[in-house]
Design brief:
240 residues, alpha/beta, Metallo-beta-lactamase, Chain A, seven-stranded mixed beta sheet, six-stranded mixed beta sheet, 29% strand, RibonucZ/Hydroxyglut_hydro, hydrolase activity, hydrolase, Metallo-B-lactamas
Length: 240
């Protein structure tokens, strides 16, 4: 399995049989309040042949109308059931609404929707494939349900957001530490790091490096991989 950071919360998850894209966002500039720190690793046209898209919620930096128009009509887009209609308005054609703890299969891949808390209806996802379990948190604050996710799945990789500005849109450094404790993954890859506030007084000084420092101070030795746009994590073959 391979996980490539395209940018911000957009990741390409590849197995032997499928390519899955999360929270597609290819906008170059952000908006009047937020600036994009780095361009995406590739244009949306390069990913039009993915096998499925996971949408955690319908905020502008997680959903891309232009990309949806490029997708073949039959490509499934998995999204929160409460806002599946809105995802269709954004251009999604084959939208499948999921509730927390609902599961679907895509070939040999199991896709589990899991709870998440944000300013709008949202879900996270756990992908089970090739003997691995990958948690994509989307946008979420820390909450007790993360203990449930950690108990239900034996997570190999957790893709969790860290907020570096105010108002907080996801977890801060300490909340990310609590999430790591409850989820108990073998590896954490921090995400949602592609934007920052245009106004300095709204920047908090929080950072993935600060999260790692707090993680170690808490006594947790969970490995953390910081990725740049275009960088790929690849699982190692199982011995024997």
């Amino acid at each position: 399995m391979k996980i490539t950071l395209i940018g911000h919360n957009t990741l390409l998850i590849e197995t032997a049989g499928a390519r899955i894209l999360t929270d597609p966002y290819f906008g170059p500039r952000g908006n009047p309040f937020y600036m994009r720190l780095s361009p995406p690793a590739c244009p949306p046209e390069a990913l039009r042949q993915v096998d499925a898209v996971l949408v955690s919620h319908n905020h502008w930096d997680h959903i891309d109308r232009r990309f949806f128009r490029l997708l073949p009509r039959q490509t499934p887009i998995f999204a929160p059931h409460l806002t599946a209609w809105e995802t269709r308005l954004y251009g999604g054609r084959h939208v499948v609404g999921l509730r927390p703890w609902q599961s679907v299969t895509l070939g040999e891949i199991e896709i589990h929707a899991v709870p998440a808390i944000h300013l709008v209806p949202t879900i996270g996802f756990v992908l089970c494939a090739e003997g691995l379990e990958i948690y994509f948190a989307g946008d979420t604050f820390y909450a007790p349900f993360m203990k449930q996710i950690g108990n239900r799945f034996k997570l190999d990789v957790a893709l969790i957001p860290v907020t570096t500005y105010r108002p907080p849109m996801t977890m801060n450094e300490q909340e990310a530490v609590l999430a790591t404790r409850d989820l108990a993954p073998r590896l954490v890859i921090p995400v949602h790091l592609g934007l920052d506030m245009r106004f300095p007084f709204l920047r908090t000084g929080q950072s993935p490096q600060g999260y790692i420092r707090r993680l170690r101070e808490s006594g947790l030795d969970t490995p953390v991989k910081l990725m740049k746009e275009g960088e790929t994590w690849q699982s190692q073959p199982t011995p024997g």
